[in-house]
Amino acid sequence: GDSVTQMEGPVTLSEEAFLTINCTYTATGYPSLFWYVQYPGEGLQLLLKATKADDKGSNKGFEATYRKETTSFHLEKGSVQVSDSAVYFCALSVTGGGSNYKLTFGKGTLLTVNP
Amino acid sequence: SQTIHQWPATLVQPVGSPLSLECTVEGTSNPNLYWYRQAAGRGLQLLFYSVGIGQISSEVPQNLSASRPQDRQFILSSKKLLLSDSGFYLCAWSYTGVGGYTFGSGTRLTVV
């Protein structure tokens, strides 16, 4: 079946530090890949996505590149801010084949950024 | 534009009581609809999904049920709540997997 593995953390960084959250996946078909962010007490928001190999998703200074050869979609940001403190989820969706577009999530990574 | 509404935001219910959580989508038609639960520890578990009115697929056997009485309405129910039903419940909609999901703001359920 489909699965997503991401570093569970927690990750604690100082403001302006470089962030990497690793994410790897296994999929039965050709997946689309996503990063979602969940701020305290809120629902999930789509942060960025990539739908085919070598695509780079980007938003709010975050980036992730779809690497089919390594089945990875690592999240990066060059300089984190306190407001980036949240839980980050990597996810995949396999289109077609009767999957009904179900999203498979990783377990989430809690990021805390200190001033 | 499309919006998704979920209510109530928080709920405290005694063990053995019934449950009804409602989710509605505006600005779109015939979406795929989903219920997820996020228990302590942050993991997300898909509970139910629906591809059309009256069509419900269950991912995990449990104390809960779902219904879709109208195209843009998705309801999560229980006849008798258990302590283990506590968690953060999220509704979401999607057209295709390529675009990802749009989530509601969630309902925090505490069973006491």
Q: Quaternary state, please?
A: heterodimer
How many alpha or pi helices of chain A? 0
Structural class of chain A: mainly beta
Give the biggest sheet of chain A. Answer: 6 strands, mixed
How would you characterize this protein structure?
The complex is a heterodimer of chains A (115) and B (112). With 115 residues, chain A is an all-beta fold. Helices cover 0% and strands 51% of the residues of chain A. Chain A has strands spanning 3-6, 11-14, 19-21, 23-26, 31-38, 44-50, 56-59, 62-65, 75-77, 86-94, 103-105, 109-114. In chain A, strand 7 and strand 8 form a beta hairpin. The model of chain A has no long low-confidence stretch (mean pLDDT 92). By secondary structure, chain B is mainly beta. In chain B, the strands form two sheets. In chain B, strands 2, 4, 5, 6, 9, 10 and 11 form a seven-stranded mixed β-sheet that branches. In chain B, a hairpin with a 5-residue loop joins strand 4 and strand 5. Chains A and B meet through strand 5, strand 6 and strand 10 of A and strand 5, strand 9 and strand 10 of B.
Structural features:
heterodimer, A: 115 residues, mainly beta, 6-stranded mixed β-sheet, 4-stranded antiparallel β-sheet, B: 112 residues, 7-stranded mixed β-sheet
Describe what is shown at a glance.
The complex is a heterodimer of chains A (115) and B (112). With 115 residues, chain A is mainly β.
